[in-house]
Amino acid sequence: MFSFYITAKNNRARAGIFTTPHGDLQTPVFAPVGTQATVKTLTPEQLKGINASLVLSNTYHLYLRPGDELVRDMGGLHNFMQWHDPMLTDSGGFQVFSLSKTRKIDDDGVTFKSHIDGSTHRFTPEKSIQIQENLGADIIMAFDECSDPNDAAYTKIATQRTHLWAERSVNAKTRADQALFGIVQGGVNADLRAESAKFIASLDMPGIAIGGLSVGETKEEMHDMLDVVVPLLPENKPRYLMGVGTPEDLINGIAQGVDIFDCVLPTRLARHHSAFVPEGRLNMMNAVFARDARPLDETCDCYTCQTFTRAYIRHLIVAKELLAGTLLSIHNLRALIRIMESIRSYIADGSFETRVPVLLDQWSNNAKRADC
RNA sequence: GAGCCUGUAGCUCAACGGCAGAGCGCUACACUGUGGCUGUAGAUGUUGAGGGUUCGAAACCCUUCAGGCUCC
Predict the structure, then answer these.
(1) Which of A105, A127, A166, A306 has the fewest CB atoms within 10 Å distance of its CB?
(2) A35 CB neighbours strand B below 7 A
(3) Does residue A112 reach within 7 angstroms of strand B, measured from its CB?
(4) Helix ranges restricted to H, A214-275
(5) How far lies A321's CA from each of A34, A104, A209, A273, A305, in Å?
(6) A74 close to A80: Cβ distance less than 8 angstroms
(7) Omega before A245 within 30 of 0, i.e. cis
(8) Angle at A191 between CA A189 and CA A196, to 5 degrees
């Protein structure tokens, strides 16, 4: 039911097709994040309009509200949110650590308090898989622990625990129509990363994720960890770099052999008034755009850029109109998806490697603000 | 025409004889497996105007301008 064909390679970069029960995914792919069974501010129709192919949703959030059994009874996540293409759910591991103020972790699982009402809950690997089976995404994730990469001693403990939990996640899985991906941890320790990559690869899951990056370490550390991990992963399985990222991170990640990415950044920045454009990140609330009649990005083919001026978008932001978030989300997601489309064609025609410096030069200053 | 009240940052208002301030707004910055947040930094004043008293005035006195209320 799940297979991954590599259609072209440029050194470590690969283009491929991952088949799922809801259609084929062309990789490299960027997945918009739809935490609460919606990519914030966008309809499924709008997502189709920007050629989104994979959407991520969240186990932690949907378990707390409206409840995974309710989603199951409403026909599963695809039907519930009316997204009929490939979907992925997170395991809830990350949110237990990033959102819950108080939590108690032991080798069996995590007891935590809801960020919504403070009520107490418990996740174990088995519980996470059960929830994700109720939700019904095509790709589901092993329950893991994402620790602070700067805490080396604790990261070792958390990584070992993540390995035990990965095995338990595999054993808990019952549905054949879902692909369970394992997650490599190990912080910024090369030896621990290598050990984790080998262990997770040994479980022979249909895909492997690299977690615990873009959580506070430097770009150089992320780069170094990918250099350690990716060569230790099987060629014939998709590699998923969780929570990344900026246009620059996507280009670098693909060059290092990553196939799947997800990130809140394009939609979060959209709601916080920033736009990805080739010359840099624009803060569209800035007064300089008040009378700017140009589109966000003259080279972009998205609905926002084909239709509206910067002046209008700034007006919507200043007036706190919801449409601002929608228009900027359409643009930011389209910008990243368009980069993916270009790179897939570059890998296919063999030009990707030589184009990386040009792509980076074009997009690397999106990590911070542009001057225009 | 007479009496009273009010004029302080873009807005609403503090300070009532001793460094002119707050909230909001404004100008920027940050945001990477999402709390439509949040956090950080910054700018802005002939205290309506003019004169006087005082070591010192947004404050007290005089004149004047503007707005409001009341009375004739």
Answers:
(1) A306
(2) yes
(3) no
(4) 219-229, 247-255, 265-271
(5) 21, 41, 37, 12, 18
(6) yes
(7) yes
(8) 95
User: What's the confidence (pLDDT) of residue A1?
Assistant: 83
CB neighbour list of residue A42: distance below 8 Å, 6 or more residues apart: A32, A267, A326, A329, A330, A333
Which single residue is written with the structure tokens 């932690």? A60
Tokens of A98: 């990033």
Contact flag, residue A78 CB and nucleic strand B, below 7 A:
no
pTM to 2 decimal places: 0.95
- What percent of chain A is predicted at pLDDT more than 70? 98
Any strand B atom closer than 7 Å to A318 CB: yes
Residue A262 designated active-site: yes
Protein-covered nucleotides on strand B (Cβ within 7 A): 26-38
Helix (H, G, I), strand (E, B) or coil at A115: coil
Contact A111, A79 (CB under 8 A): no
Catalytic position from the list A90, A249, A292, A297: A90
Kindly state the average pLDDT of the residues A301-324: 96
Amino acid occupying residue A207: G
* Mean pLDDT within A270-281: 93
What local confidence, expressed as pLDDT, does residue A195 receive?
A: 98
Give the per-residue pLDDT at A118. Answer: 87
pLDDT given at position A371: 46
- Per-residue pLDDT, averaged over A182-206, amounts to 97
CA distance A367 to A36: 27
Selecting among A85, A144, A249, A262, the annotated active-site residue is: A262
CA nearest neighbour of A110 among A144, A142, A140, A133: A144
